[in-house]
Amino acid sequence: MQVFQTLLAFSGNAQPQLAVTRQLVERGHDVQVLAHRAARGRIEATGAQFVAFETAQPSLDLTRRDADTLRDWETRTRLGAGMRLLRNGLFSFVVEVNRECSKRLSTRPADVVLFDWMLTGAAVAAEAAGVPAAALVHCPYPLPVRGAPPLFTGFRPLGGRLGRARDGLLGTVGRRFLAAGLPILNRARADSALAPLDRWEDQLLSTDAIYVMTAPELDFSSRGELPPNVHYVGPAFEPYDAVWRSSPWPEANDDPLVIISLSTSYMNQQALAQRILDAVNGLPIRALLTTGPALDASRLRLPANTRSTPFIAHRTVLPHAALVITHAGWQTINAALADGVPLLCVADGRDQPDNAARVVECGAGARIGKRASSRRLRGAITAALGDPELQRGAARLAVALGRSDGATVVADAVEDLPQSPTVGAAAARLPPNEVGA
Fold first, then answer.
1. Whole domain around residue 93: which residue ranges?
2. Is residue 200 within 8 Å of residue 143, measured between CB atoms?
3. What is the pTM of this model?
């Protein structure tokens, strides 16, 4: 089977999608991945063929301040950040991604197109080429859903008439924000000789399948009215060492291990990292900070009980952890809860306030504002470590997230897509409990 995949490969977005890529390659399928140059190494490590974007912001790299074209961290309000994310991320790629995908599909026909849901231009190209297409969702379900608070509000569910009114109003506002990108989407459709759409979201909803890569228990939208082509398939993780062989502490040190993980993408998080480090100073814990490419470790003051590392696979170290302090990135949350580790969410931006709301609603963690002082952070860390309810909540989510491997489920379903122009064949392979409806 010839698979054409497009990937917005930055930060945690790439991990579950590349797990699918690897699964398809290992099954013997020919997978070609169109992505930004910064993703070459990660894509080629899966065994897939890497193809670089030529015109769709080819130098994009959100791990570096100077190569970040979203720059949503510059804004002062959540609304401003959301609008910049839509304008510079979701909308700006559509026309060029459609053109590049159409060019590739004309020279190398594919049996199926897999695409990051944010690269909507790939769905346009697949529709024009008559190729089945499926979207991979690496965050909570992103489109407005009746019966659930919309993404990018940071709200938890609110029952009753008031809740329905609130969510209905916010859903209407969310659709109006999406409508701002409709002229761009219809320009891409015109390039491909396709009729215009009345709603931006219809492009995504018209695909053969939308795979949400987590468990339904962790996402509010699974409780609402979802389209029939939306499926919760479980989390997906790239390979990791099952044994943590490089602990920087003596084996006899059994203080609780706290992981501090603040994203691999640049979000101006240096000051936040320092406040968290000051908060853990003197606590009877072992704190491990993963700096990634976004933090400058040389400019941080590390307490005596803290060590730093540029990178360690979450699933390698998490079985040893008692708590994860995180920016509330969706993949960090899925990884921590898959191993039953509670979280303290210090949401920074993008979908992170929404992710934190889901963790709190599930009883698997707590949240605190990103501008909290070190003193307040210290109190929140101490409280989270001593709260057995959070441990029980995280254990419940570990069961839900362990029900299915998202990469396997998606690969099974994708193998059926070329035989069927509808979602029916793919849905038949999905475990009944994983279909959010």
1. 2-236+405-434
2. no
3. 0.89
